[in-house]
Write a structure and sequence with these properties.
single chain, about 325 residues, mainly alpha, two-stranded antiparallel ribbon
Length: about 325
Amino acid sequence: MPERRPDESGQTVAPTGTGGAMDLATSEARSLERTPDGPGGTGPAAPRLSAPGGRPRSLWSDAWRDLRRNPVFLVSALVICFLVVIAIRPSLIAPGNPLACDLARAQDGPAPGHPFGFDGQGCDVYTRTVHGARASVTVGVCATFGVALLGSVLGGLAGFFGGIGDAVLSRITDVFFAVPVVLGGLVLLSVITSDTVWPVVGFIVLLGWPQVFRVARGSVISVAQHDYVQAARALGASPARVLLRHIAPNAVAPVIVVATIALGTYIALEATLSYLGVGLKPPSVSWGVDISAASPYVRNAPHALLWPAGALALTVLAFIMLGDAVRDALDPRLR
């Protein structure tokens, strides 16, 4: 067995052989864990490449950690959770009937049991404002889901396969971008007599998917150039596996950010179309319908307009703030 000899610091090391290699590897590992911090001292540990629980760190875990520490995200998430709850069960805080009206109390101000007053038909503004969240949130969520699904699927396929299909879809999106949204809504929805939310949802999906298409297409093209994707292709992975297993999970973050911000925009678009008389129509209960009905007598009863308009503005702001927080957390360049 090789004889150990002292080194310059007085410690014994093996000059050759397996024992010396193991000691050298151990010394190197320790030197990577601790760095000198002055004579005879040690510095802080090297940065971890895994989460505290031993799990490997990822974009999603880092994003969730940042979101939990972001007050903008927490406030907007609480507001959105509250809106979702009252959209599902508005009777929890407004047990009255939003269609029950008393003309004798038309345009009256706040009264006991009616904190928001009455509108021009004598309906309780508080009850209608609470129940109006259901239509607006339903339109926003369903339209966003449809837009994100259609746009991301078409954009992902176009960016991954390219060719003539990509060129045709790109030119189609240019056509849709040239159509004014409000004007298109006036033309398409004016011939529909349904008083449900689904025509409005379908219209938003029809004109909203090109934006997500472009984002998804660009993200897929960017991710497809990475080394791990090229390695998967070289190892013989099928196109479907490469797209679903390696590209889609790493290209979906920009789509989530765009969809989250767009959700608030779609809620505002529904209110705009309802205000113009082509979206939701009476007797549907919606913030846009109430704003439209209250606008002729805003001088005599401004409360009938301010409360649904304030609820609409708060909802749109909450979703936009949530989208901004998600964007900051998912963008590595902003860390």
